[in-house]
Amino acid sequence: MKRKIFYLLGILSGVLSAIVIPLDIIGEKTAPNIWIYANVSFVVGSLISVLIVFFLLVPIKGKPLGKYVDPNFTRIKFISGKAFKQIVLMAFGNTIASLGYFYVLYAFSDPSAILPFMQAAVAYIILCEIFTEKDSPTISELHAISSILFGALLASMSPSGNIDVLGLIIVLTLVNGGTTIVALSQRKVRSVVVDARRYDSINIRLWYLLLTTLMFLVVTYIMNPSYVLEMFKIGNEVIIIVVVSMAITFFAKVTYIRAVGMGKASIVQAVSSVSAILGIPITILSNLLSPGYFVEISTNVWILIIKVIGAVLVAMGIILLALSEVRAIVLIRIRAGASPRGILESLSKIRGVIRVSAVTGKYDYVVQVKLRTLGKAYGLIASELDKIKGVEDYIWLSTLYEWEEI
Amino acid sequence: MSFLIIAYVMINVTVGKMRSVINELKKIEHVKSISVVAGEYDVIVRVHSNSLEELFEVTEKIHAIDGVERTTTHIVEKEVITE
After folding, report:
1. DSSP A275-320
2. Which residues in chain A have Cβ-Cβ distances shorter than 8 Å to B71?
3. Cβ of A198 under 8 Å from any chain B Cβ?
4. pLDDT tens-digit readout, A377-389
5. B27: which chain A residues are within 8 Å (Cβ-Cβ)?
6. Per-residue pLDDT tens for A317-344?
7. Do A268 and A355 fall within a single domain?
8. Which residue of B has its CA nearest to A346?
9. CATH second-level architecture of B5-75?
């Protein structure tokens, strides 16, 4: 039963995030200009987020409601120092990605082309990691990355059988590049510890969104001041579309977080990648429900088949990446006289290590490890452990099954 | 005043009893996560308790499970989470 709910939530999150795209296309066509629509989206989105955060401050049984969403949440707090730099980077990445996203919405008007591409950002993150690790990729990573990228290319084919080169370049550079910056700096924010606490996801999201809105307004103002100024003259129908689109995005995030709370994040990611395939039925449906707003889906069977193959390749690539993830627990013994603090530091810096605990007993450290494939275990973990002075001995326990209390 | 005591309990399980041991472990309060591993131990359990007394009660409950052969408890002194 619970398992079914888990998969259902994952799929729901994929479906919800796919529905937002046709809504945005309708909104963009209703508004006088794509950038005015984009600005309204950001401003309304920020206002709603602030309201939600205030709502999360309401105490229930002495604890703010937000604590049930993220246990680290206590109050609204400014993000400062090292973490602030990362939040600025996240907002910068999102601004770039959003500029690309809204341009592509305007230029393509075709959800079936946009959705698979948005999923391709995963491939970028891995490519980045491969470069920073200076490690050759494993065969399954190469397989997944090429499947995602080629799949996205096929899926982006227009009804006439062409591939829009400009649109392609924008997605590949701006949208996916920006998304990659967001993902990589988000990881860093979460690892910053202040007063023995990490920043909670609610505050991170709030400040990240507010900063993005600010940056986006500035950029569009520079492009043309009227994009910002005419925002206030916008009709009610546009506001309604924005609010509905924001609400759906919000529920997509909530279902995603709920699903992650129930099971492994990687499986949720894999399951919600159905949104790549959903692009085609969603385009057909949107054309039926509100004709005129979208690119007509091709009636050429071959083009449709190619698009379906592309979308399936994207989804399969993501599923392959998500499910080949390997977890292990490494137990480490250190030599007498070695500095425990230094070793804790060095261990936590190893890529793939997600938690280091100094413990009492037969072993001195319990290290939890997460790797994309077992092939990385030697290069990333074992060779690094060998370099740390003071490590006497370690045993590697591969995790076969995992359960976590929700 | 409650403070968190985190511990890892390494468990060796009798062959053939794994499934029932896991099901029993899931029912124990304060058991935060269960990992079935291949190697020196069979199961590694993470416990979040409010006191040493409570941790003792948890390990006692684990000992009482049919199929648990031996346990080793490691109390966490310091922790760095990087994810």
Report:
1. HHHHHHHHHHHHHHHSTTSSPPPP--HHHHHHHHHHHHHHHHHHHH
2. none
3. yes
4. 787 788 889 888 8
5. none
6. 888 877 777 889 999 999 988 877 788 8
7. no
8. B80
9. 2-Layer Sandwich (3.30)
